[in-house]
Amino acid sequence: MGFALVREKMERIDMPEQLEQIEAVIFDLDGSLVDSMWIWRDIDIEFLAARGLELPDDFQRAIEGMSFTETAVYSRERFGLSESVEELKAIWNQMAMDKYSCEVPFKPGALRFLKYCKSRGIRMGIATSNSRELVAAVDGALKLSDYIEQVVTSCEVPKGKPAPDVYLEAARRLAVQPARCLVFEDVPAGIRAGKNAGMQVCAVEDAFSGDLLEEKRRLADYYITSYQEILEGTAEHLPKKDVMP
């Protein structure tokens, strides 16, 4: 009875303007669909400290948008690490696994938005720079697969964000044309990736990228602090954007 009442209430909501002509929604994972960006600074500090190194101030911005593999290659070269790329990825997965399984919540309003899209037949996917292992961990905790049909990681395509590859592959697997896709992203490299794929992009507020707010607003088509704003028709419209370089 409770679910039926919620479904009935959601179906009375008019189609949000951002979803008109949209057949698929594709989410970045970290910082966009789930609140997890805080994890990685702690992991980076701990990982480097164990090797007698300090975390450089520019490190997290330097790896923004890189795939898990690209980040391992970059870190190995920058810090002269002895571990192989695959060993580094395995270490980071292990360090993050418990947190992704137990401590990562949805971003505000995200679960209701997922339920709304499913009720309207809008297909959904994830296009992430994270590892498939950690996607599986957060899926186990939050039941993402109840809503998400396809997951693509940047390690599965030629280039990470801001290249469009991961979003184009997600659209291909969802069998939806890029122009009919709406992307949700929290950092500039991801916003550029979505725009370079020929998709509409909604920037999502996240504390990790708070210092990049102006750039995010300059690049995106919409801006939200909560997914509830999409459903309520209060998402901020930004000046129309072309594909980003």
Quick summary of this structure?
The protein is of the alpha/beta class.
Report what the structure shows.
- With 245 residues, the protein is α/β, with parallel strands linked by helices.
- The chain has 11 helices and 7 strands.
- The chain has helices at residues 2-11, 37-49, 59-62, 68-79, 85-102, 110-119, 132-142, 165-174, 188-196, 213-219, 228-232, and strands at 24-27, 123-128, 150-153, 181-185, 200-204, 222-224, 236-237.
- A 7-stranded mixed sheet has the order 3-2-1-4-5-6-7, sandwiched between helices.
- Helix 10 links the parallel strand 5 and strand 6 (222-224).
- Helix 4 crosses helix 5.
- The longest helix is centred in the middle third of the chain and has 18 residues, at 85-102.
- It is globular.
Blueprint of the fold:
Layout: H1 2-11, E1 24-27, H2 37-49, H3 59-62, H4 68-79, H5 85-102, H6 110-119, E2 123-128, H7 132-142, E3 150-153, H8 165-174, E4 181-185, H9 188-196, E5 200-204, H10 213-219, E6 222-224, H11 228-232, E7 236-237
Parallel strand pairs: 1-2, 1-4, 2-3, 4-5, 5-6
Antiparallel strand pairs: 6-7
Helix pairs in contact: 2-5, 4-5, 5-7
Q: Characteristics of this structure?
A:
245 residues, alpha/beta, seven-stranded mixed beta sheet, 11 helices, globular
Fraction in beta strands: 5-15%
Strand segment tally? 7
Oligomer: single chain
Q: Could you report the average pLDDT, rounded to the nearest whole number?
A: 93
